[in-house]
Amino acid sequence: MTRPLIIGLTGSIGMGKSTVAGMFAEAGIPVFDADAEVRAMQGPGGELVPAIEAAFPGSTGPQGVNREKLGAEVFADKAALARLEAIVHPAVAARRAAFLARHADKPAVVFDIPLLFERGGDAAVDLVVVVSAPAEVQRARVLARPGMTPQKLDHILSLQLPDAEKRARAHHVIDTGTSLEATRAAVAALIAALPAP
To answer: Is 1-30+107-197 CATH 3.40.50.20?
Structure first.
C-alpha cells in the first residue's frame, strides 16, 4: 500500500512554524496541526475534558480545559505533566492516524509537531523540516505575546531541544528571519524538490 511522503515540521517557540505550516497548506499539502487538535479535544465538549478533569480536579469548566489553571499545575511538575501526556498523546496519535488515512492518496502531508525531536516523533516521518530564525528575532516575537514573560520563555526553551541541534538534525531548514516572500519562496522550492513517496 502506498502512502504519502510524511514531512515532519518543527521548530522552537516563536520561529514561525505556524506561518510555514500555512504556506504548505496554501500550496495544497494537507497539514496535521497537533496543537490545534489538542485545543479542539480540550475545548467545550472536547473528548479529553472528562479524563483531564478526573486527573486534575477543578481544571475544566463549561469552556473545556482552563489552560492557564492546568498549565500552572503541570508547569514545574514532571509527574503531573507525564499524567497529562498519558491522556493527550494517545488521542493525538489516533487523530493523526485518521488524518493519514483520509489523505492516503496525496503525494505528501505535513505533520506540524512542536516537540518532534523531544518526543521521538522524527522516527515516524520521512523528512524533517525545521523552521528557524535568529535568537533575537525569536525572543522579540515570543515576548510580544500576551502574558509572556522572559522567565516563562526561558522555561519553555529549557524544555525544547536547542535550535542549533534541531537545525543539525533536519533534512531541510526554512529560515523565517527574512521576509515573508523569501520564506514563501523557500517553502515553494522545498515542495518542488520533494521526492516521490
So the answer is: no
**78-102 and 34-42 are packed helices; what angle lies between their axes, rounded to 10 degrees?**
110
Task: Look at residue 57 and give its three-state secondary structure.
Answer: coil
Sign for the CA dihedral angle at 24, 11, 86, 67 comes to: negative
pTM score, whole prediction: 0.86
- Placement of cell 515540521 in the chain: 9
Would you kindly state where each structural domain of the chain is located, as residue ranges? 1-30+107-197, 41-102
Q: Summarize pLDDT for 132-169 with one digit per residue, the tens.
A: 999 999 999 999 999 899 998 988 888 889 999 999 99
| C-alpha pair distances (Å), 73 with each of 76, 89, 118, 153, 177 | 8, 18, 21, 17, 34
